[in-house]
Amino acid sequence: MRSEDNRSRRPGSSRLFAVSAGAALSVAVAAILSACGGSGGPSTGESSLGGSSGDSPEVECVGSATDVGLGDGAVCADNGFRPTADDFSFPNWAGVQDQDGGDGFTLDTLVRLYGASEVCVDGIAAPCEPTPIATQTIEQWSSALAGGRCEGMATLSLRYFLGLDQSGVASTVELSRPNVSLEQEINYWWSTQFVDEVKAQAAESRTKDPVTLTKELVNGLTAGLGYTIGIYDEGFGHAVTPFAVTKVDPGYVIHIYDNNAPGEIRRITIDEATNTWAYDQAAQNPDAPGGTATAWSGSTGTLELTPMSARSAPFACSFCDQGDSEGAATTKGYVSVNLAAGGSVGDPAAGLLIATSDGRRVGVAGGVVVNEIAGATYTVGKGGLGTSLVNAELPVNSTEYSIEIVSADGRESPADIDTVVSVASPNGSLTTVKSRRTVRPGTGAGPGAGAPLEIDADAGIAINNDSTTDADVAVATNRERVQTALPPAGRLKQRDRGGSADISATDASGAPIVERSIEVKPFERSAPGAVPSTLVGGTNGRPGGTAVNGASSSTVVRSSSTVVRGSSTTSVVRSSSSTVARGSSTTSVVRSTTTVTRSSTTAVPRSSTTTVTSSTAVPLPSTTTLVSSSSSVVRSSTSVPRSSTTTTTVAAP
Length: 653
Hints:
By secondary structure, the chain is of the alpha+beta class. 12% of the residues lie in helices and 30% in strands. The protein is globular and about 75 Å long.
């Protein structure tokens, strides 16, 4: 591992893709969907994004960009990362070849994100019996993963460079596929784009204009901090790794590693006069015959800067153990709708058009993004290889919704495409519908017009199979899971009723197919559990590689439990003592002097002061605020980097 100080070379058509009501009610097309305060330091690669749209920090650009291989202009920032040395030698890839032990999304990854106490039935990870809703979440995210792993590759390559993780090789470019441990590590970092903490930081950055974000990037890179960039257009999203910024007329150039094109320095241009960005080498699928490279561009809302500090696990689980002991909703006042859809290269992206009975809409209407529903959000995820990833969150306030699967740019797909839509209710049930359909501009006609999905005023879900083939429907809670094939013109209704989810399905003639009630309430945890994050694999089929958040093994425990991270005996404890230690050997970082409890109540009080003790130099802020409200833990804009290095060892070829 090389230190950031040694690597530094620093010499001296408007579109809105993610909107909430009130931000902009309509925008001209296309791109639609998807802690650290203070200074931090070069060893952490973590920062904050402060300010609001219009804040434009000052930057200084000096020295010749030519001298450091970055073309014309002056150097504003350069952290020393370079493709051909610090990138992956293989490109971003789509599809899932091996769900269980290869490049698919696994239970181990979900446990690593949220902890065994949230994901496993008895809170024990060795072995973990996943809750039914966890099993269904894995399937849902696997469908999204099939669209590409750009977010994971953009993140992990930078973490290796900054020394936040260790690759086990002298240079990242030496790593190759197949390598199970490496592929699982990439998948883990890809999945962080869906957790609430990362989504919040990314969404906050999208309220800022491109010039402001570029200047914040300059200051962050100068300080040795780490970011990924998200770009959005054509109804798709892509993630890249920025490593330098230069000043040229009429604005700036952001130099990036694009994981679709290893070994190349690519550039996003920022026009200071128009406050827009452009990337002329974007691609929906570079592996397709002839390629599909196309120019993407946009302004405020379609360029995103996510700090590495937002990706510090464990995260608050938005779907785990919802409801109180009687099944009553206690944790969220919204319905979350997710779409993953993939067609052939060149097909339009799929999106959602959601309408209320009084005509208000959120989503894509005829190729234009709209949001007329107060409190609703609509975002596009990042896969990078042409699969549509969409999330919409709808407030539950006695409002009815119709949900259509539509074309994101107004074109009709030439053939049916695979779609997976999931609806997470406030009470903790997850309903997933897999079907094949042609996407076309939607009607936005509102509830009662025969839309594929409808949500009633009590958050009950109705599914109308308007496709020509069977739809595969599954309803899961933390207790049970029901699956059925819904024939064309069939209808399924699902409603949460204080402690149970009632499910009924009929065929086109009205004849019953399914009539069931399943429990909706948390498990009583009788024992603490541990979270194994060890992903054992090898390079090119050889055994021996590991990819963990620690040099040899990693276990995580919540609720009077123990989390071991590091190369030997370092531990993290989340219980009555609030002691948190991470690092290698005996290095320890104590994160709190007050009590942190997880019990039957949902409030998790955390102290506003963090005391750091360490046997090695660990540059961390002296204070941080960790806030918990209701059942969710909200990280403030200033969070503490867990340690100076989080080791991730991957087998070398």
